[in-house]
Amino acid sequence: MTDVISQPTTAQLDRPEPPSPYESCFSMPLSPAELRTHQERYLEIPTYRYGLPARLLFWAADKAFPQGRSFEFFAFVELVARVPYMAWEHVGHIAQTQNHRDHSFGRQIQDRVLLARDEQDNEFWHLLIMEEFLDASGYKRRLFFDRLFPQILSLIYYQLSWVLFVAKPQWSYRLNSDLEDHAMRQYACFVEEHPEFDEIEWQSNYRGDYGFHATVGDMLRQIAVDEEQHKNHSEDFIRRGARFSRASG
Ligand SMILES: [Fe+2]
Ligand SMILES: [Fe+2]
Question: Closest Cα to residue 79, out of 95, 65, 90, 66?
Fold first, then answer.
């Protein structure tokens, strides 16, 4: 008896179509003219009264960084800014585990998980860029306010984002929206206060990760635009119903 080994057809030898790649919301840098338009808009948007948790956080930040807007202040902001996205990714995974038999619902939740990861990554590039400025300037990091305090606050903020999401997701998104609004304005003001940033070429190890902005001013304006996007995503979730739902994801 002879073994019959079927030969693969040409179609079987071809590689199949790859999965659709996730397209980051932050992959397309804006032009210098677009960035300036956004910055001017941020400087003109009327301020509003933030919620109590956000005001407490800003109060603590003011105590830790009395010098105000500076690269060390923004390094702190960016370290803390990643935290709610980590918490939301976590609650998304828990919701998927609890609903693992409902495949389409799990898939809908995955879209929020992917967005939370995308936002975390974007904040992480912001953080590395700020840390790079601190290294270049020779800034001496203080043990408590630059090292311990941001980590302690991040721990508290993570738990708060998590608990608020479980209790009432709108509250968690509202807190983040307040923080992102504040960050957006702070970056816009920082560039306004330092016109010399438009004369300084932006040299960085992270241009390939973040975008090839020509000047420090444009890079900072782009970060302000990113912060607005983060804010808008939270606002979108508040509008369309913040809790995971089979109707709206
Ligand atoms: Fe950021
Ligand atoms: Fe942000």
Answer: 65
Ligand 2 centroid distance, CA of 103 (Å)? 31
Measured in angstroms, how far is the CA atom of residue 1 from the centroid of ligand 2?
69
* Ligand nearest the Cα atom of residue 78: 1
Tokens standing for 217?
């001013």
pLDDT digits (tens, 9 = 90+) for 116-170: 999 999 999 999 999 999 999 999 999 999 999 999 999 999 999 999 999 999 9
Cβ-based neighbours of 171, under 8 Å, separated by 6 or more: 164, 165
Helices (H) and strands (E) in the chain, counts: 10, 0
The answer to whether the beta carbons of residues 40 and 226 sit under 8 Å apart is no
Q: Which residue has the tokens 């307040």?
A: 178
- Give dist(CA 79, CA 218) in Å, integer: 21
Cα-to-centroid distance, 227 and ligand 1 (Å)? 6
Nearest to 151 by CA among 75, 85, 202: 75
Coil, strand or helix: which one is 201?
strand
Distance 170 CA to ligand 2 centre (A): 17
Q: Domains of the chain (ranges plus CATH)? A: 51-189+223-240 (1.20.1260.140)
Instruction: Tell me how far the alpha carbon of residue 61 lies from the centroid of ligand 1, in angstroms.
Output: 15
